[in-house]
Sequence to fold (140 residues):
Amino acid sequence: MGNDYTPYYCRIGDVPAKDGPYVFRREVDMVEIPVTWGLDDFPTFEWLYGVNQGLSAASQVYERWAGDFDYLCEFCGEGVYCLTMHPQVIGRGHRLLMLHRLVEHMKERAGVSFITMAEVAREWKRRHPLNGASTGGRGI
Fold:
């Protein structure tokens, strides 16, 4: 959760300061794919007594998820939009209809592709070698 739409290398040895910013240390050869609870179906749809309110209307979730996607396209230009979905959560009929609508909305944008996280990591590493030398592009 270190970036909204851009993968990044994980680091080891970061030092948190009590009264200042983190001191970032060495990057390692592991790519973090950006995720957020806001693009996860569980917190929005599932109800857990005393823990998670859930049970949001699919239309509200569509508005949030499409809004995040549109922001990425309009203000960032490129990046990774990573939905986290659990079959037992998204698999309800009305939620699947919402997901289908969202995918159709995404497909309307030029340059959008649907690929696995492994493909995202491989492509990002190719464009951003760990030694810092760039081979083009700032994202996917």
